[in-house]
Design brief:
The chain has 118 residues and is of the alpha+beta class. It has one domain. Helix content is 32%, strand content 19%. Strands 3-1-2-4 form a four-stranded mixed beta sheet, with helices on both faces. The radius of gyration is 18 Å and the shape is globular.
């Protein structure tokens, strides 16, 4: 005779999503799509890519550079992560990371950065 399995306790939600910022080489400014997305870029400010991931940002950056689910601008122009711009926010739930990716990109663009966020 089979006994009914005990109901499983709801899984605890882990906060394992991250936002991250990658510094891009100056040559990205020669890309028409990047330039068009940054009409208010201030000369001398960094060029960056803002993303979100369920992985550790270091691992995600390595995947970009290896061409694995890579953003083209990071693959071609990515130099390094800029943790001073994002570490304070991580980790967080998925929905918070989705929102923070957009908010962080907007904030950096308003500060004069050249930003790509996809």
């Amino acid at each position: 005779m089979k006994t009914a399995a005990a109901p499983k306790a709801p899984r605890e939600k882990r906060h394992h999503h991250h936002v991250y910022v990658v510094e891009l080489a100056d040559q990205v400014w020669n890309e028409p799509r990047f330039r068009k997305a940054n009409p208010d870029y201030r000369l001398g400010m960094p060029f960056v890519y803002v993303g979100m991931t369920g992985l550790d940002p270091d691992l995600r950056f390595d995947k970009h550079k290896a061409g694995i689910q890579a953003n083209r601008f990071v693959f071609d122009y990515g130099l390094r992560l800029l943790p001073q711009l994002y570490e304070v926010y991580n980790p967080m739930p998925y929905e918070a990371a989705r929102e923070m990716e957009v908010e962080l990109a907007i904030g950096l663009r308003e500060a004069g950065y050249g930003v790509w966020q996809a």
